[in-house]
Amino acid sequence: MRNQLDIFDHDPARLAKANRDAAEHALTDVQFSHEVRQERAAHYTAEAERLEALAALCTPTPNRLKAVTHSSARNAR
After folding, report:
1. Against a cut of 0.70, is the pTM above it?
2. pLDDT tens digits for 2-56?
3. CA–CA–CA angle 36, 41, 43 (5° rounding)
4. What are phi and psi of 9, to 5 degrees?
5. Are the C-beta atoms of residues 51 and 15 closer than 8 Å to each other?
6. In this structure, are residues 16 and 51 in contact, taking their beta carbons and an 8 Å threshold?
7. Domain ranges in the chain?
8. Choosing a second label site near 50 at 20 to 30 A (CA), which of 1, 17, 69, 74?
9. Which of 22, 12, 9, 10 is nearest to 58 (CA)?
10. Which residues, other chains included, contact 59 with Cβ-Cβ below 8 Å and sequence gap of 6+?
């Protein structure tokens, strides 16, 4: 999945970290009530967990990396 050119750099691990940071910040936003702050934090945390699961699927194992490198070299001719 990550062997395609990603011109927007949609790295799931990086986006998950950003959502974790947003969840922490959502808990301290004074312009929202306590209930809304909790809802926003829960939303960002759920999105971070989804992205972390996606990042785990996208992380190449040594065997997959070797296969991609070998097949890419073969198709480069």
Report:
1. no
2. 556 666 778 899 999 999 999 999 999 999 999 999 999 999 999 999 999 999 9
3. 95
4. 55, 55
5. yes
6. yes
7. 12-75
8. 69
9. 12
10. none
